[in-house]
Write a structure and sequence with these properties.
The structure is a single chain. This protein is mainly β and 122 residues long. The chain is 0% helix and 50% strand. The chain is built from no helices and 11 strands. Strands 2, 4, 5, 6, 9, 10 and 11 form a 7-stranded mixed beta sheet that branches. A hairpin with a 4-residue loop joins strand 7 and strand 8. It starts with a strand and ends with a strand.
């Protein structure tokens, strides 16, 4: 019973930046590792990044490493994804998710948001 709502998506030219937000309600996100995923038509949902409960540990997919940054503000019950140097291949619906497991690459996520569209034009 955690509700997650993503926002901040939009249309941006290649090389630009966007900052996505994931607002949680129902429970504090302090109990959860928080991740971002993305999905395009015809492809499986792809792991992007995850952050530990306290924000100390972060993991990134190789495709976004050095360009994207995940952060969290537990007091605001919000997780962020700063996306810089955007490429057309970053175009996708981006989803926020919460996991009751310790942070890792292949952990199970218990709650998912509805997603926000990110479109990068060339």
């Amino acid at each position: 019973q955690v509700q997650l709502v993503e926002s901040g998506g939009g249309l941006v030219q290649a090389g630009g930046s966007l900052r996505l937000s994931c607002a949680a309600s129902g429970r504090t996100i302090r109990s959860y590792a928080m991740g971002w995923f993305r999905q395009t038509l015809g492809k499986e949902r792809e792991f992007v990044t995850v952050i530990s409960r306290t924000g100390v540990v972060r993991y990134y997919a190789d495709s976004v490493k050095g360009r994207f940054t995940i952060s969290r503000d537990n007091a605001k019950n919000t997780v962020y994804l700063q996306m810089n140097s955007l490429k057309p291949e970053d175009t996708a619906v981006y989803y926020c998710a919460a996991s009751g497991q310790a942070v890792g690459i292949g952990i199970k996520y218990d709650y998912w948001g509805q997603g926000t569209q990110v479109t990068i034009s060339s």
